[in-house]
Amino acid sequence: MKPPPLIRYDRRSMSTPSRWPGGLERALRAGLGLIAAGVLAVALTGCPRNSAESKQPTRTPAVPVAVATVEQKTVSVGLQAIGTVEAYSVVSVKAQVGGELVRVHFKEGQDVRKGDPLFTIDPRPFEAALAQAEANLAKDKGQIAQARAALDRDRAKVSQTQAALARDQAQAKNAEVEAKRYAELLKRGLIAQEQADQFQTTSDSLTHTLLADQADIKSAEETVRADEAVVKSAEQAVRADEAAVDSAKLQLEYTSIRSPIDGRTGSLMLHEGNVVRASGTNDSTLVVINQIQPIYVSFTVPQQQLPIIKRYMAEGSLEVRALPAGESQPLRGVVTFVDNAVDQTTGTIRLKATFANQDKRLWPGQFVNVDMTLTTEPNALVVPSAALQTGQQGPYVFVVKDDSTADVRRVTVKRTQGSDTVIADGLKPGDSVVVDGQPRLVAGARVEVRRPSRPGDAAPRAPVPTRPTPKTG
Fold this sequence. Notes:
Layout: H1 11-15, H2 22-54, E1 63-69, E2 71-94, E3 99-104, E4 111-112, E5 117-121, H3 124-188, H4 193-254, E6 256-258, E7 263-265, E8 275-276, E9 285-302, H5 306-315, E10 319-324, E11 331-338, E12 348-355, E13 367-384, E14 389-391, E15 394-400, E16 406-410, E17 412-417, E18 420-425, E19 432-436, E20 447-450
Parallel strand pairs: 1-20
Antiparallel strand pairs: 1-19, 2-9, 2-13, 3-5, 3-8, 4-7, 5-6, 7-9, 9-12, 10-11, 10-13, 11-12, 13-18, 14-15, 15-16, 17-18
């Protein structure tokens, strides 16, 4: 078959239906009729019902939120940090003398008081050394008694020689006078020469006797000085013996080791039967005692806060609260130490607070949250930090109004401390602010206030709005 000829139409032929081909004209008229019938059916059935449904407003469900009330109360102004618990004092117990460790008087981890016995080292060698020192002391004390007796005897000899000298001096003087008198008589021829010579001889003899007496006195005095030297040497020997006795007693006391502080013992390094060495010669620590009542909490703060801390410390003591992990109630202490230099590596300064630690809740080496109070601010507006949102124009909060709708409030934040934020402007006491559910809120949205969820609870999900389904009929 031959294909039908291509029919070409021009505008003039299309403008006059009588000139269209017969089949095409009938098809177009049938199509237009069907379109007109469909439009009429839609106009009669569908349009009025859709119009009625479009006039009904869509009801938006309320957003479930948790709220908190803006409070006006006295709040503390302070600093927060992470602190480390340190023992108030740490003592490494070491032996001062060597010997066998014969007894341990405590158990590991036991609390001890100052003066309680800890260890006993074999005391027998030191008891023997003490006995020997005491014997030497007694011997030297006997020697000093002998030296003093000899000194007294020689001093008596000096006195005797001095008395003999005085007697001989008197006799010599008398003999000298008689010799002179008889010499005058001899010149006058009244006596014989032999008689005058006799008195002169007696005078000369007494003169030599005086010289001998003086020599005896000098010798006796030298003997006395020698005796005094012997006494002094004996006294020094006694003092040395007394020092040796004291040293031996001290060494004996070192065999009984007692606790120097109140504290808690750690692990035992040496047990009974071991030989300990004296401190300084390959010494070893027997046990470490930590004093935990009271106790320190050490923490650091930025160096920029140092002037403020010094100013408030000058006005009074600074309170510090320490909260160990897993506990709800903090412990209270006071700042007792500020380091004398800033750490140039970190730009911080180290502080220490002292805690009584009566319940022993703080333990050396433990990490705690530290909150140091500098001062207090009365009548401050406080909201939970969870209520704050950040926008392009700054922080804001959602406030629930009396008609259960949300309103956006721009606020001025003064400071944030932990879970609370102090507001300087934008809120008033008693306002209800949203603390949970803010991502679903917009200004003017209806809200449904619910109880704040506990930590770990999943937040309730808002119902998802659905579009109304058109009814057909």
